[in-house]
Amino acid sequence: MSKVTDAAIPAFLKAQKPLAGSYLKLSVGLGLLSGLLLIAQAWSLASIINAVIFEKAALADVVLYLAALLAIFLLRAALNWASEQTAVIAAMRVKRDVRKRLHQRLFDGGPLLLNDERSGELVNTLVDGVDALENYYARYLPVMSLVALIPLSILVFIFPIDWISGLILMVTAPLIPFFMIMIGKGTERLNKKQWRKLARMSAHFLDMIQGLTTLKLFNASRREAKVIAKISDDYRRSTMSVLRVAFLSSLLLEFLSTVSIAMVAVIIGFRLMYGEMDFFFGFFALLLAPEFYLPLRNMGTHYHARMEAIGAAEKMVEVLGDSVSDPKLAPTVDLKSSTKTTEQVNTATSSERDASSQLNTSGSVSIDFNGVSFDYEVGRPALKNISLRIKPNEKIAIVGGSGAGKSTLMNLLLGFITPQSGEIQINNTLLQPQHLEAWRKQIAWMPQKAHLFHGSVRDNIYLGQDDANQPAMEAAANAAQISDYIESLPNRYDTHVGERGAGLSGGQIQRIALARAFLKDAPVMLLDEPTAHLDQESEQKIRQSLKRLSENRTVISIAHRLNTVEQADRIVLLDAGEILAVGTHEALLAEQPLYKEMVSRFQEGAL
């Protein structure tokens, strides 16, 4: 994935602010109103103390002040609660949208987006990483807005009655954010390091769980336990480093604010002692002094929320940024998003320009590759100038050695990557990013090892067509020759399946996946030798079902076995990313030495 610059992360966090809508502004407005009432609260309290102690007023004389003070207390409590709740709502809106876009990016980018990534790191980003944004938007941003407004409002009231106290407050106030920024530079680096270590630990735990069988078979459990202990200890040390800086900054912050308040109190005390100041105004200024520093102290407290958000957002920028920086990945088309990437804007322009070009997938489907080229790395082409026409209902087998370009060709058809030159046409219509959703609805995909999700058998079959009814689902299961087995299960179609089909044999997993394909009833079938790695009985059942499913459909299969290519109408022979020949099995066997060598070497084996 692309390298993230230091400037990109704050820019990303700032770009999400509009997603909070008016809730963030409302939170700041309520907080400001509470701050203004705080001044009225101090005035009322100073009036009560001055009247009772120095003017010898009775309780009845100050009852109105007491009532006003109580009303201010209650109103401020309500305003603070409302401010906090609206800030949380704002943060939840941002989290929801960012998580949605991350999911969409992963779905649109497809498997190739994950080639260089560890699943555990991405899971950590999608869950804990997005959650780490909450304090930034719900705490830090509102405080940053109030840190200038409330102290400034207090100074407006203090200066006319006590310019000396106001001057002390004004001079000492900038010291707090100055030292926080100085400390924050080191904290940002430590937080990024901490999040990387957390992502590494999450990824390693997931790798260990997924590879537990291998670890046990190779007696590597103890060695792996030591590795996990080391990774966990590294994360602990990193966390302690962050906490150490956090406690240090809090200590410094409290020290500065305490010393500043003490300076105001001492000077007011001396002036009262020498009769240079009225008690009411001195006490009023003294009551406001701690409240003057409170927003600044809150900024210091929540400043680490910013550092945490920066650490967590680094991976998000990396994932979402690929849609701009890596043109090889399939574009993300999300015109409803509040924050569009450069590529999305370009895609929107392309969509408007080709609004009249709708993908026609009614009836049979033809596919044309016109001069298609693609490379994963500069100077190492995976496909070079591929031109091929696949007729409606034609059965095509793709063969070639390792690295010939078979998987790349399939990924292009699935829309996981886009051609760097040339074009793909579906029924004589150029396949474009805005067509991918409609195009994938027309495809049934059967890999060598199908994936079943944790859930019921019913849920896994319904992936093929989630709006299908029960009879259609049962008919699909019957066509895939898996219905008898499902009926024998304790809860039939409601029986739960473990992650990746745990508890089922390879043949049963493939037949449930085949039932999905029958239920989808798509006009195009893409196969990657789904009978590989199966026992003879399972292979025979799946081949029978596939033969029935292939009728009146366009079928493109990556072939690894001889009986697969023999059933194809045409065979495409790939070598080093180029089409070496196209023809029937008999023609290629007679004319192509490479194909003949492959057949003779792997009779009934892997081609």
Could you characterize the architecture of this molecule?
The protein has 21 helices and 12 strands. The chain has 607 residues and is α/β, with parallel strands linked by helices. The protein folds into 2 domains: 243 residues, ABC transporter type 1, transmembrane domain (ABC transporter transmembrane region fold, Up-down Bundle), CATH 1.20.1560; 235 residues, Rossmann fold (3-Layer(aba) Sandwich), CATH 3.40.50. The longest helix is centred in the middle third of the chain and has 53 residues. Keywords: ATP-binding, Cell membrane, Membrane, Nucleotide-binding, Transmembrane, Transmembrane helix, Transport. It holds the Pfam family ABC_membrane. This is Thiol reductant ABC exporter subunit CydD.
How would the blueprint of this fold be written?
Layout: H1 8-15, H2 23-53, H3 63-109, H4 119-131, H5 134-161, H6 163-172, H7 175-210, H8 212-217, H9 221-273, H10 279-325, H11 342-353, E1 367-377, E2 380-390, E3 395-400, H12 406-414, E4 421-426, E5 429-430, H13 436-440, E6 443-446, E7 455-456, H14 457-462, H15 470-479, H16 483-488, E8 496-497, H17 506-520, E9 524-528, H18 536-549, E10 554-558, H19 562-566, E11 570-575, E12 578-583, H20 585-591, H21 593-601
Parallel strand pairs: 3-10, 3-11, 6-9, 9-10
Antiparallel strand pairs: 1-2, 1-4, 4-5, 7-8, 11-12
Helix pairs in contact: 1-10, 2-3, 2-5, 2-10, 3-4, 3-5, 3-10, 4-7, 4-10, 5-6, 5-10, 6-9, 7-9, 7-10, 9-10, 15-17, 17-18, 20-21
Domain ABC transmembrane type-1: 26-308
GO molecular function: ABC-type transporter activity; ATP binding; ATP hydrolysis activity
Subcellular location: Cell membrane
